[in-house]
């Protein structure tokens, strides 16, 4: 039986080392113009299962380092406009999985796709997420069935989670602020042999920590949504224990500090950012504690009110793909080209041999979501593994103030890189994960234009070009 936990029924005051933790919000005296509902469900697998994120792993998980959770926040403004955010300690949803989950939620709640936002923390220590086929040749049939059973149950859990969140709607006051964290570094390191995954302390990294505080009308903290633009890879390919990585430990830290509150993590533009250092569970715990402590600091600071109305928008940006290379060029890539591109080149050659090369796509429909909270806050939900270098581009396109940038939303279809990174090369230019193709440099303009158009449609004032 599924067990959902509604946070309003839990205690909201805790003592820590003999001192009362401040729970009153700076916005406590504000009028509650929102209704917010919360729910959560544990999604830790019950036994050994294949973990996602590292191709080098060759066996199922061997235990649990920390439990995994999916959490929902339903929100409704004064005019009855509703939306549901679901976060999960998972690597990400490809389009077939994300679409199936949102369809199930829509069927059970009556919400439309633009009112539903999914975000996975991108931990590399959680089960494989698939819809139907999981045909990795090296994985025995029994292990494949375990993965498929887990995912079938997961889709039902997430749909029921949204229903539970909507059933919990209560008056709420929203406020927000930002902090910073120091363990995020750009991972695109330039070497004499080209760009590789490493540590680039001179490269851009988004170290901001956006924080949304949800209070009851009397000022008691009910929930906090926070972000960090960093890959969930403190635990490396040598780890075979289930874990939410640093993001899971950060949520755990906040919920210990504020008993009864629900902490929800949204990953930002982390496609080219890693934690530093990385490699052990102690490192993941330390980074989670550092992030959680910074969120707690922001919660007690000078937060800005978040008022309505709520506007939700969703578009599929038809981002262009590069023209299909010739057979000769594909063979050259497979034999002597950059290793990250060899996988996609092999798939293209296979399609050519099967006579289906003309069916290869020329564009990819990239979902982009945008939630506008009155004039106070814009939440952009990008899909794919968006690189950190998009952050300054998006801030320039939309204006840097009152802006929250999230990625890995709804559909993790591949790395979303800038035109400059495409020219430089490196792991992030490897191509799409599930469809066949490489991004075109023109994809950058399409993405920025789509986000800007959505923001204007939702009522955000954007800078003149």
Question: Any overview of this molecule?
Answer:
The protein is α+β, with helices and mostly antiparallel strands and 465 residues long. The protein folds into two domains: 7-311, no CATH class; 312-374 and 396-458, no CATH class. Helices cover 28% and strands 27% of the residues. It is built from nine helices and 22 strands. The chain has helices spanning 95-109, 141-167, 245-257, 281-299, 327-336, 339-353, 390-398, 419-424, 443-458, and strands at residues 15-16, 19-20, 34-42, 63-64, 69-76, 82-88, 116-120, 170-180, 184-191, 194-200, 208-215, 221-228, 241-242, 262-267, 273-275, 304-306, 310-320, 363-373, 377-382, 385-386, 403-406, 415-416. Strands 3, 5, 6, 7, 8, 11, 12, 14 and 16 form a nine-stranded mixed β-sheet that branches. Helix 7 packs parallel to helix 9. The protein is globular and about 70 Å long. The model is unreliable at 5-24 (pLDDT under 50).
Largest β sheet strand count, sense and barrel closure:
9 strands, mixed
Overall morphology: globular
Total beta strands: 22
Percentage of helical residues?
A: 25-40%
Number of helices: 9
Helix/sheet category: alpha+beta
N-C termini distance: 54 Å
Q: How big a fraction of the residues is strand?
A: 25-35%
Overall average pLDDT: 91
Rounded to the nearest angstrom, the radius of gyration is 22 Å
Low-confidence stretches: 5-24
What is the number of domains? 2
